[in-house]
Amino acid sequence: MTLLTVWDETDETTPVLQTRDAALIGDTLSPLGVRFSRWELKELSATPTQDEVLAAYRTEIDAVNAAQGYTLVDVVSIAPSDDPAYAELAATARQKFLSEHQHDDDEDRFFARGSGVFYLRVEGKVYAVFCEAGDVISVPENTTHWFDMGTRPEYVSVRFFHDDDGWVGNFTGSDIATKFATYDELAAVPA
Ligand SMILES: [Fe+2]
Fold this sequence. Notes:
alpha+beta, five-stranded antiparallel sheet, binds fe (ii) ion
């Protein structure tokens, strides 16, 4: 189940809100310009190709593209394995967007499988959205945020873009991301 945790940015020890209520999550994120919704999950093979994922969710993806004007869609995925190459890939992938940054474009994601945490810092608060399979979330352009996929990442995720270069990360240089509960810690919160 999706988990939203909200803190004051100056106090990472005590959340001001923590909920798994989808309606409350949507209502809390909506004023930030964040679109949050859920899609019904479709059957996918064990290691789905990009074309398979895009075909399975064609109707939903077309609707998002029509509503938001996206012109590019792709699928990124990582699957846990005991292969040492996975450990290296996982660490590199996790580190890439673990520091606070923003983009000139919206960052929309659908999780077809697995999970990940988007942390948004807006007006003195930090909003951590622990997304699970079925979740669709948008981080508005220029919103400072970071993303944690955890130490054993697993996801199949659809990404939406307006153009080729809108999704370059502009890093803020803040170390705020190191202070708040990680993916692994939030994954351990009782259901
Ligand atoms: Fe980002």
